Fold this sequence. Notes:
Blueprint: H1 5-15, E1 19-21, H2 23-31, E2 37-40, H3 44-49, E3 51-52, E4 56-57, H4 63-70, E5 77-81, H5 87-97, E6 102-106, H6 109-115, E7 120-121
Parallel strand pairs: 1-6, 2-4, 2-5, 5-6
Antiparallel strand pairs: 3-7
Helix pairs in contact: 1-5
Amino acid sequence: xxxxxxxxxxxxxxxxxxxxxxxxxxxxxxxxxxxxxxxxxxxxxxxxxxxxxxxxxxxxxxxxxxxxxxxxxxxxxxxxxxxxxxxxxxxxxxxxxxxxxxxxxxxxxxxxxxxxxxxxxxxxxx
Length: 126
């Protein structure tokens, strides 16, 4: 997908303020049974096709509205991902502005997850 230049600028600015992790880092957290929230911020239809095993869904369009209900603990570790790591970087930046202190954006998103051969799930409601 070809992204617009201003969108890419916005993402690059956000990436200077957030922390990122790799798909391998996330897989290690899962293997070690670390406590963290693994959130897919893609659109509903993207999540329904498939998503990283163990991830829950809070789309970018609603996460700021609903995050405090879903994860009231501002100290909780949250790992976000999207298609390629751009939208999740923007969400990580927003959540930090809302007071969340341990937020990570998974670099490469679901594409990197798939390429690594890590487990996927399909939405069971479809």
